[in-house]
Design goal:
Helix content is 42%, strand content 20%. It is of the alpha/beta class and 161 residues long. It has a single domain, classed as Rossmann fold. Strands 3-2-1-4-5 form a five-stranded parallel β-sheet, with helices on both faces. The model has no long low-confidence stretch (mean pLDDT 95). Bound molecules: adenosine-5'-diphosphate. Adenosine-5'-diphosphate (ADP) binds next to helix 1 and strand 4.
Length: 161
């Protein structure tokens, strides 16, 4: 029984994240979406809000649960047992950082592997930061974020009224 761990900030969740989670859930028996809380980062949504939004969106997904952690990913994975980290790769720009993180995670936990799924072509350019930027100016992001959490995201991020 292999379990996938999909880590990220999800600040906020986008359809790009959901695409990766859905695809991981088709490959693995169980999938844990791990909302990471890094004390050096500032977020637009609290950990509880990010977890709650992901739970609403993934409620009907087979074998998917949402958890959060403020610890090192390699340690969290070691406690979970037989797990594989699943990450989405967009353009070449993601590659260097993801490569470095995958190697460091394996250095810290020698049985921990990272599997990359290529981003779907519709979401190659999509990131939480792009959503923040467009929403701040009141732009339409309805085709880029899940409908269940659309209003919560848009209301929080709109700053130029
Ligand atoms: P972001 O890079 O948008 O701030 P996160 O740190 O929350 O996102 O990313 C969590 C995971 O989701 C990472 O593996 C990231 O590569 C992946 N991801 C984010 N956006 C997309 C996307 N549009 N398509 C595929 N994977 C994505």
């Amino acid at each position: 029984m292999k379990t996938a761990i999909c880590p990220g900030s999800f600040d906020p969740v986008t359809l790009g994240h959901i695409d990766i989670i859905e695809r991981a859930a088709r490959i693995f028996d169980n999938t844990i979406v791990m909302v990471m809380q890094n004390s050096r980062k500032t977020y637009n949504f609290t950990t509880e809000e990010r977890v709650s939004m992901l739970r609403r969106v993934t409620a009907g997904f087979r074998g998917v649960v949402v958890e959060s952690s403020d610890r090192l990913l390699a340690e969290v994975c070691a406690e979970k047992g037989e797990v594989v980290v699943v990450k989405g790769l967009r353009a070449v720009s993601d590659f260097e950082l993801e490569f470095q993180m995958a190697l460091m995670n394996r250095k810290l936990n020698r049985t921990l592997d990272t599997v990359f799924l290529t981003a779907s072509e519709n979401f190659q350019y999509l990131s939480s930061s792009v959503i923040k930027e467009v929403c701040s100016y009141g732009g339409d992001v309805s085709s880029l974020i899940p409908p269940e959490v659309h209003d919560e995201i848009v209301n929080r991020l709109r700053i130029h009224k």
